[in-house]
Amino acid sequence: MQRVAPWLKAINVVLTPTIANRRNKIDKIIKHAIDEAESKTDGTAHGDEQFIEEMRFLLTCFADVDGLTPTGWIGTVDDLGKRLENRMRIRKLHALHPEIADEPIERPIVVAGLPRTGTTLTHHVLAEPEAHRAPLMWELMNCDLADIPDSVRERYIKQAEQVAQGASKASPMMPRIHPLGAEKPEECVFVLPHGLMFVVRAHMPRYEQWMLDRDYTPDYQYLKQALQVLQYGRPRRRWVLKSPAHLWSLETLFKTFPDAQVVWTHRDPGTVMGSMCSLAETSQSVHTRSPDLEEIGRVWLGMLATGIARASAARENVPGDSIIDVSYRHLAEDPERRFTELFERLDAPWGPTERENLDAARNRAGGTGGHVYDLSRYGIGQSDVAQAFGGYGDFVAGLGTV
Fold this sequence. Notes:
Elements: H1 6-15, H2 26-41, H3 49-63, H4 70-96, E1 109-113, H5 119-127, E2 132-133, H6 137-141, H7 150-170, H8 174-177, H9 196-199, H10 205-213, H11 217-231, E3 238-242, H12 250-256, E4 261-266, H13 269-287, H14 293-314, E5 323-327, H15 328-333, H16 335-345, H17 352-366, H18 382-389, H19 392-399
Parallel strand pairs: 1-3, 1-4, 2-3, 4-5
């Protein structure tokens, strides 16, 4: 199956001249995004200077990518504009309703783990019980209060669905890798301002190093503020969050949510690497003309190994029951038993309804047609993976035999 739809390739060829001068338009683009966000939210950019300057830095790094496609550039500019609008809306709601800051985000369940380790299945199953709640894609993109007019809610959902459908239309492979849906539970990266979600689009050395070096405390405080908005005026339920990106910032996550329980999913790193590189190739094929496959392999081998190293170090400083290790192999081979055990460790009830939810989630996951990938395509061998990940591969293998 083609990674990029033929019609998109044709459009990119025609529109390429329109982005030739993109580096010189960044200040104008940022100003337009600020004006649009202030107009749509009746809010203000005052107080968000650092957020805006970091957005400007990201856009500058993206503009420097050789072979950038017009649709990749336009899509990222639009994405950043929507993120700024969401930011202003959340800040304004906190200012208008100071009591929102008192909303407790208690004992959130956070599904983490490297990409392609069963995080989506785990997230969906954990999100289904009546006492739990996962943020939906449209809610993360447009955080707002419970009593908004139906017309506003419908507009938010339509906007998110356009993003989901756009991803599928641009790349026929994407629904097989990570299907999106406006009214489905989604990852925290739709709120978190920075991280892996931009690295997967293109190789940006300056941004990648900056991303790894930065302090994520403001990002996680912002995530908490977003959840408080989504909880305010609604029944309080236990949040179920998800993103592989949390592995890179576990220490910060626990500082922000001290009573969180992290469900860390594990899978053979060689298999994970092949799948992750295929995802990166698919995304880069939409955003750039000719992705460098060996570069993808090098970047993501280092990136994923860094995530594991950081998360392993962070877990040494939290109580033992704060992180629950889950084997992908267990979930695949004996899902009912393993999810029953997981629910018990999370102090969550397991019964006939939860069993039906598991069956439904597994059927949805199995209906994508499969995701085929080959690690050697990216210039990496199993020995490279073993060296980069150290003892993690042995840990995963041992976990799978328990």
